UniProtKB/TrEMBL annotation:
Keywords, comma-separated and alphabetical: Lipid transport, Signal, Transport
Lineage: Eukaryota, Viridiplantae, Streptophyta, Embryophyta, Tracheophyta
Family: Belongs to the NPC2 family.
Subunit note: Monomer.
One function term, GO molecular function aspect: sterol binding
Protein name in UniProt: MD-2-related lipid-recognition domain-containing protein
Organism, scientific name: Adiantum capillus-veneris (Maidenhair fern)
């Protein structure tokens, strides 16, 4: 077989073979806000999230000062419409007190099997005990219907 034909067959196979790619992105809510907690990254597992399964958001961050406690508020949006909200004690998601420096925040959620597939946005706000905003971030992620779609 001609090498050019083999090359084209390879290109077509690669182009039409579904692959698992990271679908999540994140950013701070404001690029001008001087947050007391700086988020370094957001890891979503699995990525994309599988409906009916568990999703874990691991958020390594840096605290500028000691944080004795506070709250984490999570709002989830689908097609721009808020579909979920929860507020929880910060110390449930990480060990308190948080000393200045590196720490990680873990947010695990079980997704219902009827969750629509598609693009979602999660907005997370962390406040201290006085209600002062420590950080805010937006995570864009995908929900898929099943693992087989990723392979």
């Amino acid at each position: 077989m001609d090498s050019r034909v083999c090359s084209w067959i390879f290109v077509v196979l690669v182009a039409f073979t579904p692959v698992a790619i990271a679908n999540s992105t994140w950013r701070h809510c404001s690029s001008t806000e001087d947050y007391h907690v700086t988020v370094k990254d957001v890891k979503v597992n699995p990525d994309p999230v599988i409906r009916g399964g568990d999703a874990t958001f691991e958020i390594p961050a840096v605290a500028r000062e000691t944080i004795k406690g506070g709250t984490v508020t999570v709002q989830v949006y689908y097609l721009g419409i808020q579909v979920h909200e929860e507020k929880e004690d910060l110390c449930v998601r990480t060990s308190c007190p948080i000393s200045p420096g590196d720490f990680s925040l873990i947010n695990s959620e079980g997704l219902p099997s009827y969750a629509p597939t598609g693009s979602y946005r999660l907005e997370m706000r962390i406040q201290n005990e006085s209600g002062d905003l420590l950080t805010c971030l937006r995570i864009n992620f995908q929900i898929s219907s099943k693992q087989s779609e990723l392979q």
